[in-house]
Amino acid sequence: MARMKFLCDSDRCIECNACVTACKNEHDVPWGINRRRVVTLNDGKPGERSVSMACMHCTDAPCAAVCPVNCFFTTADGVVLHSKDLCIGCGYCFYACPFGAPQYPRVGNFGSRGKMDKCTFCAGGPEADSSEAEYAKYGKNRLAEGKLPMCAEMCSTKSLLAGDGEIIASIYKERVARRGYGSGAWGWQTAYRETVQT
Is the pLDDT of residue 198 over 70? Predict the structure, then answer.
């Protein structure tokens, strides 16, 4: 079975934020939450790079390792999801994630911030596929429809790739071979404990 992964080629990202907007629109993500965001490193300086960030659906997810109620689970496709019914909003996952993926839906005192929200790779949640309950909590389940995440489909420069990790790695390897160098796979080794051979 395929392992679903994201890869952002920072040499192609132009910081247009289409991925962020597409995600919010597709899933009716509440105000104040960005399941995906674009981070710019060395802004305005030589070597500036932009990276589209969300949950990287790690092989050994640190968010799942620290959750005291075991609300995180990994699907057969390698997508890391969580149950909002089990979540107690403690925030351990927020602090454990190196990519800042889990987020509180509201700002406020501890206990009033609500249950955590994160990127679902457009795969919904533990409820029945494409049900109203699933949509209300997690947004649209595009994976059940045979589609890729909306953020990657809307990327105009195709810097954000999503899908089978082996296919994505082969696309990136081909790009690296054409460029002659490979600086743009930021986060791949941290999240997936694998290297993209150049």
Answer: no
pTM (2 decimals)? Answer: 0.82
Tally DSSP H helices, then E strands, for the chain.
7, 6
* pLDDT number for residue 186: 54
Q: At CA 103, angle to CA 101 and CA 108, rounded to 5? A: 160
Residue 196 pLDDT greater than 60, yes or no: no
Query: Is 92 in a helix, a strand, or coil?
Result: helix
Q: Are 50 and 83 spatial neighbours (Cβ–Cβ below 8 Å)?
A: no
Check pLDDT > 80 for residue 161.
yes
Beta pairing class for 72-74 and 80-82:
antiparallel
C-alpha closest to that of 6 among 101, 105, 103: 101
How far apart (Å, rounded) are the C-alpha atoms in residues 112 and 90?
A: 11
3-state secondary structure (DSSP) of residue 187:
coil
Do 52 and 42 contact (CB within 8 A), yes or no?
Answer: no
Hey, which bits of 125-192 come out as E strands? Answer: 160-164
SS3 119: coil
- Round the average pLDDT of the chain to a whole number and report it: 87
Q: Is the pLDDT of residue 11 over 70?
A: yes
CB 155 within 8 A of CB 19: yes
- Token duo for residue 180: 């002659």
How many Cα atoms are found within 13 Å in the side-chain-facing hemisphere of 160?
A: 30
